[in-house]
Write a structure and sequence with these properties.
mainly alpha, two-stranded antiparallel sheet, 106 residues
Length: 106
């Protein structure tokens, strides 16, 4: 198992490749903890280095990506701000899982 370096940045890419985020290691460790992550996600979504990237994601592209997970219906996916936080959570946890399992590729 590999540790997440809080000083390093990690890439998280959607399965289609249409969305890329470069997230600080500290973001991954803050968000990917047992229990609710809402406050950590909200905090990191407001940080300039993350917020600038989230601002570039189009609502339609994000809805399409989230729809692939099958966890939210069309009514759930109407709020772009909520979708951005969902995406940040999924991205951070996916990157953290890849790092910890040794599957992360720079």
């Amino acid at each position: 198992m590999t540790d997440i370096d809080p000083e390093k940045f990690y890439w998280a890419t959607s399965s289609s490749g249409s969305i890329d985020l470069q997230l600080p290691g500290e973001c991954l460790t803050d968000i990917c903890q047992p229990g609710p992550a809402d406050s950590a996600v909200a905090f990191w979504a407001r940080q300039p280095e993350v917020a600038a990237q989230l601002d570039k994601i189009s609502p339609a592209t994000l809805r399409d990506e989230l729809r692939e997970y099958g966890a939210w219906d069309d009514a759930d996916l109407q709020d772009h701000s909520e979708n951005l936080e969902r995406w940040l959570w999924l991205s951070a946890c996916g990157a953290a899982e890849d790092v910890r399992s040794g599957d992360y590729q720079d």
